[in-house]
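Problem 12. The chain below contains 313 residues. Write out its predicted structure in token notation.
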Amino acid sequence: MTGVDAVTGVDAVTGAFGYTGSFIAEQLLADGRAVRTLTRRQPDGHRLEGRVEVLPLRFDDAEALTSALRGVDTLYNTFWRRFPSPATGGFEDILAQTETLLRAASNAGVRRVVQFSVASASDEAPTSYFRAKAQVERIARASGLSCAILRPTLLYGPGDILINNLAWTLRRVPLFGMPGNGAYRVNPVLVTDLAALAIRLGRSDETVTVDGAGPDTYAFRDLAHLIRDRIRAPARIIGVAPLVALTASRVIGRLTGDVVLIRDEITELMAGLLVSGDPATCPTRFGDWLAANGSSVGRHYSSEVARNYAPLH
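Solution.
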């Protein structure tokens, strides 16, 4: 570990007004670090408004991007998109933008980058998302920066997308259709645990690839039943053909104005990609968190489109 100054140093977080980035920024601030965010959005009443320095995340101006990163010790790069869209581009665009960002970080003298990826990222993965994450790992390693790759499993926490919206659905439907028989496994990891792990990796100089994984692995059907029972939801949970589950998610998407689930995500889920084969790196047990937070989980819908695909301003 290095002697990184936890009182006077400056760190940068891409997307501190997003989900994972906001928890990293909050923990850095609590540690006495100054936080700079590079973002494409305005804070608009976000809980971190006024607490972090805000600079634009612009990929069309390399000089401005380099300037925005000068004086930064560690860059926590959470920049990504869940799925391509005509407005935001595809994964190839994100990879090119990430390369531009990390080149600017190197030119600015940034000491360290913590690059977010995903568990099971691989060139042989069955979906473009996981293959693109393998490519972004190579870009980070080739950047010339001291580098840690962090690979989360199934992320959950206050207002998350998957667990929260699963609970939201279970609260509101009499019948919940999960893809297939639900025997495929998932490994939940709490977002605050993940943020703390990212910061520990940021303070090191070691070149590492680490899975961000909690201590519990569930069959998806067991996870769904646990959530249903803890929140006292009325839904009966049954297995359905993947196409039926996808169609039902599209109906909910039309009602909420969101993209609930895409075909590739069903493939990833049923392939068991959201699991780590390594020992747990994050301590919180999902059942304990759910017992403490079950009364609020799924009370409000978390929109992916509103959070990450709304028009920039």
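Discussion. The mean pLDDT is 94. Students who got a different answer should revisit the alignment rule from Section 12.3.
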